[in-house]
């Protein structure tokens, strides 16, 4: 997909305009992700100067999904900047692993395996495990046994070779196993797409690890199953829960877009709510509007 420079510049200007509605900025971001190329990346890099942690987090996510190696030095700088929010640095680390690279990138990620921010440390340990897996003979031997990802996302771990829902659930909920193995179980369950598998994933919302709960919520947003909305509601309503997890629950609910979700998301739009949660609900309500609109695609800033 390509766009004339004036059109791309207009989309980039929306992304970088703090006065523009957040939902318009998100649509601009995802349009730039779809367009790709150095000009799109230039605007996305500039967005890391924004005040919104949610927007910066999403910029890092989009860079990772684009798979453009030109983003590696940008994301490395974000990961290394310890003044940045945990949610942003975590996403930068995950994005680096999504793009991949050689020993230099692996060494960079290893530097942050014991970061002071637990979410960043866990992300980097997971990223290192993923990169080392794909360098191993195990990945070659397992390649033909792995289930297909119907969502075409670049995930923090490959799916597990186990195919039994009960056994995958046991792995998913086993706090003594590595995050990498538990993530693999999660993605295998997601790829199945059954009610039983989705409900097993949702049980992970009560596990101890913050990063894990956050990824559980993200995956539930991918599967968009109304069967899991009560678990997401409970996590969203828990004021003791980490904002990084609550934000992902809000966005997951927006993806499900059931009739009773709008009213729930609207409860968190007040200024007294944490910014990342409030902004996530704004974006989630836009997801609901999109899902109910019949529009062909969410990233539609080209036509606007």
Provide a short characterization of the protein structure:
The protein has 304 residues and is mainly alpha-helical.
Per CATH, the architecture of the largest domain is Alpha Horseshoe
Tally the structural domains: 2
Which strand-content bin applies to the residues? under 5%
Overall pLDDT confidence: 94
Please give a structural write-up.
The protein contains 17 helices and no strands. The chain is an all-alpha fold and 304 residues long. The protein has two domains: 1-101, Leucine-rich Repeat Variant, CATH 1.25.10; 147-304, Leucine-rich Repeat Variant (Alpha Horseshoe), CATH 1.25.10. α1 packs parallel to α3 (38-46), α13 runs parallel beside α15 (243-256) and α14 packs antiparallel against α15. The radius of gyration is 19 Å and the shape is globular. 45% of the residues are buried. The mean pLDDT is 94.
Which terms summarize this structure?
304 residues; mainly alpha; Leucine-rich Repeat Variant; 2 domains
Topology:
Layout: H1 5-15, H2 22-35, H3 38-46, H4 53-66, H5 72-80, H6 86-99, H7 103-110, H8 118-134, H9 137-142, H10 165-173, H11 179-192, H12 195-202, H13 210-223, H14 229-237, H15 243-256, H16 261-266, H17 275-291
Helix pairs in contact: 1-2, 1-3, 2-3, 2-4, 4-6, 5-6, 6-8, 10-11, 10-12, 11-12, 11-13, 13-15, 14-15, 15-17
